Amino acid sequence: MIKPKHLFLLISGIILSLNAFGQNLISSQYSEQELAEVLIPLKDWRPFPAIDDREAWSKADKEQMEFYLDYANENINYLWPYIPATKSLLIHRNGNRTEYQEITFEKRRVLGAMILAELYENKGRFIDPIVNGVWSICEESFWGVPAHLPKTDEYSGLMDVSKPFVDLFAAETAMYLAWADYFLGEKFDEISPQIRKRIRHETTNRIFEPLMNKHHGWMSSNANGRRPNNWNPWICSNWINAALLLEDDEQKRVAHINKATQVLDEFLTPYPEDGGCDEGPGYWGAAAASLFDNLSLLNEASNGAFQFAYEDEKVKNMGRYIYRAQISKDYFLNFADASPKPTMAGAMIYRYGKAIQDPDMMKFGAYYIAQNEKALPRFHYFRHFFEVFMHEELENAEKGLPLPKDVWLKDIQVMVARDQEGSTDGFFLAAKGGHNDESHNHNDIGNYVVFYDGLPVLIDVGSGTYTRRTFSGERYSIWFNRSDYHNLPTVNGQTQTAGRAYQATKVAYETNRRSSSMTLDISASYPESAGLVSWQRDLALNRGKRVTIKDTYKLSEAGEIIQHLMTVYPVEVVKPGLISIAYQGKDGKVSPFEIQYNPNDMEVEVEKMPFDLPEDEGVASKWGQDMYRINLTSKGDVKAGKMDFTISKK
Q1: DSSP letter at 148?
Q2: Does residue 272 surpass a pLDDT of 50?
Q3: Of 552, 518, 549, 548, whose CA–CA distance to 532 is shortest?
Q4: Are 391 and 354 in contact (CB under 8 A)?
Q5: 19: pLDDT strictly greater than 90
Q6: Which has the least CB within 10 A, 60, 285, 526, 607?
Q7: pLDDT tens digits, residue range 276-303?
Q8: Which helix (H) or strand (E) covers residue 178, if one does?
Q9: How far apart are CA 633 and CA 573, in angstroms?
Q10: Element (H or E) spanning 171, and its range?
Q11: Which helix (H) or strand (E) holds 556?
């Protein structure tokens, strides 16, 4: 019999264990007072060499710095534009967000390049243009973008300057100004003390005070329980950056970092243990990668006091996701709004891999440094400063693509399988379960993609150009967000429904030497009016041979079923039961794929997508002008049965 004292100790131990399990990783490590002790004071913090440390800057990547210098020289007479109110109003008037963003993003790109050029050259030629840029940006009514304004009549596309709030690009702007102040502040003072004063005044009013005194939706899970997306760590990285560099009051500086880490844990704590990013690889660069940016900055500002976070298995898995979601050199999984061809920030990925001691991630990052052309400043500007001082290490690093044979992300319910480990040769299959309230959600439970030799056969369309409709109540009026433009069925005229309750059930995964498969029931992702009792989908890669999709369904009443398949190649119905897709191989030659189906159950219609909507420009830019939807309609109403597809190379 357990004695009361021992029972108390046992219960206390269990409680402590449970508390530790649910503990916030980053913010719980130090109290605010302890944080004040580990943070390097502003006057002593030198994350990168000062401009007058010419020996240090002589060691920066010469080729990269001359690239910035060339661009800055081309723009030395840049006329910093003001942004007319009518540009901001476009988002309200016709849904266009591009015209405004092109202006504001270019201003920051030019400013960032000029700062780097002056650091490299140190002749003072760019100081006046930089001051003009800083002043022009400080005079903007909103540092964010109109697409992020509340969609109410009160705003109607124009910022209410009396109610500042922080979106992605407002935070990015503060970060740009912070680095301008850090590197060039003394030179600004030689011109006028008003420049640095203005930077701090605007940053305090627009960024620091709203962040410390107002709850923003991106800071925590919403009322429906949806956890924060990439906005959280992305904004936090710029918040921490700006606070570390600009806040002169050490007590306030510590308070900023303390709150920012608490907000950051609102992103990290509920994140899937498997590290899976439901926003996809394109958004990974601002989600898990921004988490790394935060940890990196915190480490720099505390002599490594946040190194412990890299030992956390979830943090490691969040990094590994980027190479686990790879299809081939150019293509990545693009479920939801992700791009099929995202740009890889190779140096940052390498640094993340090095921090978590993952050689595969380091090789992956180093590979993309070699592959990518030099990039001008845009987002995550501070990453450039790390990169230019690592060029020798990055050039000499081992390079390669891991291309794992099998990946199962059980928390977000995504499977990846390929014929051969470390090679894009042969078949590739990926499929997803999950639910229909994911970040940047598409209604796509049970969707899958098939590639061969690293090139698409059946695709996920992904996202197009963002407009006013994209993040509004009209989101699912956009065709590529709906399930009937994924590799999914329409049942009784009903497509899948958005919402957390609409999800996959009975999900299972298996893999062995010869095959990998996923089984799930997708019936709960459809509305009740679809009349679905069950819809089991079995997806399998039979290595070196074929991909099979086997659907077993049961309806409460007989009705019509239409199976949809999406491809970028012309389609021909060779004969009943056999569809040919004019797949083009690596050599550019047509090498058809065959899809076999039961002609007694279904009849086929093929349509070419018209691409005539504003959102369609983004689709065409990723996939080209040709896209086809294959519709296989049941012959008559059906109540229960099977529909099978076999996808193989002719």
Answers
A1: G
A2: yes
A3: 552
A4: no
A5: no
A6: 607
A7: 999 999 899 999 999 999 999 999 999 9
A8: helix 168-191
A9: 14
A10: helix 168-191
A11: strand 546-559
pLDDT computed for residue 12 by the predictor: 36
In the three-class reduction of DSSP (H, G, I as helix; E, B as strand; rest coil), residue 176 is classed as helix
> Do 390 and 429 meet the contact criterion of CB atoms below 8 Å apart?
no
DSSP label at residue 208: I
The answer to whether the CB of 334 falls within 8 A of the CB of 480 is no
Residue 377: what pLDDT? 85
Q: Could you tell me if 522 and 539 are in contact, meaning their C-beta atoms sit under 8 angstroms apart?
A: no
Residue type, 547: V
516-573 pLDDT tens trace = 999 999 999 999 999 999 999 999 999 999 999 999 999 999 999 999 999 999 999 9
b/e sequence 261-278, b meaning 16+ C-beta within 10 Å: bbbbbbbbbebbebbbbb
Answer yes or no: is pLDDT of 11 > 60. no
Instruction: Enter the tokens of residue 211.
Output: 């962040």
Instruction: Give the pLDDT confidence of 406-427 residue by residue, as tens digits.
Output: 999 999 999 999 999 999 999 9
Q: Are 336 and 438 in contact (CB under 8 A)?
A: yes
Pairing of strands 561-567, 489-491: antiparallel
pLDDT at residue 1 tops 70: no
* DSSP one-letter string for 330-370: S-B---TT--SSPPP-HHHHHHHHHHTT-HHHHHHHHHHHH
Which residue in this structure is represented by tokens 């190379």?
649
Which CA distances in Å does 510 have to 132, 326, 331, 430? 60, 20, 25, 13
With a pLDDT cut of 70, the percent of the chain lying above it is 96
Tokens of 615: 């959102």
The number of C-alpha atoms within 13 Å of 382 and in the hemisphere containing its C-beta is 31
Q: What is the reported pLDDT for 143?
A: 98
**Contacts with 288 (C-beta within 8 Å, 6 or more apart), sequence order:** 233, 275, 277, 318, 319, 321, 322
What pLDDT sits at residue 371?
67
Q: What is the mean pLDDT of residues 70-84?
A: 97
- Report residue 316 as tokens: 């490691």
* Cα distances (Å, whole numbers) of residue 438 to 339, 460, 502: 16, 16, 11
Residue 387 backbone phi and psi in degrees, to 5? -65, -40
For 610, other C-beta atoms within 10 Å of its C-beta total 9
Picking from 611, 613, 621, 577, the residue whose alpha carbon sits closest to that of residue 595 is: 577
* pTM exceeds 0.70 for this model: yes
371 CA to centre of own chain: 20
Sign of the four-CA dihedral 298, 301, 303, 305 = negative
- Cα 642 to Cα 276, 505, 566: the distances in Å are 32, 19, 21
DSSP 383-407: HHHHHHT-HHHHHHS-------SEE
Between the alpha carbon of residue 284 and those of residues 280, 288, 302, 388, 525, the distances in Å are 6, 6, 26, 23, 25
The vertex-263 CA angle with 108 and 433, nearest 5°, equals 90
Backbone angles phi, psi at 607, to 5 degrees: -125, 145
By the 10 Å C-beta count (0-12 exposed, 13-18 middle, 19+ buried), 425 is classed as: middle
Query: What pLDDT sits at residue 147?
Result: 95
The Cα–Cα gap between 189 and 200 comes to 13
Say how many C-beta atoms besides its own lie within 10 A of residue 86's C-beta: 12
